[in-house]
Amino acid sequence: MRNICLLTFILAFTFIFQQQAVGQGCVAIRGGSSCGSLLGGSSTLMKGEFTMGLGYRYFESFRHFRGSHQEHHRIEEGTQVINDSHFMDFSLTYALSDRFFGTVILPCVFHKRSSMYEH
Q1: What is the residue extent of each domain of the chain?
Q2: What is the pTM assigned to this prediction?
């Protein structure tokens, strides 16, 4: 019953504030932060209008696996490798006509890898 109430609240909140949610796919392999400024939205731009968008995504990994087995001792020993990735996309969409749009996306990516030792 509690799960149904929570789900009802989330759906009501989403519809009331008209938020847009888009699935991102596999977290570990997906690079960019967004697909475009009008993804999932309606085509409401008229000729000469434009929209700007900003997408941001952060990913951190520090767990190590061999097959399906996690190596917990790596964290305890401090020998784990930590990967930090930041993705930011700036987008600009311009309506060339009422039916055709052009989008320019400027991706910015920053990666940092740290470990106690290097291979």
Answers
A1: 24-114
A2: 0.54
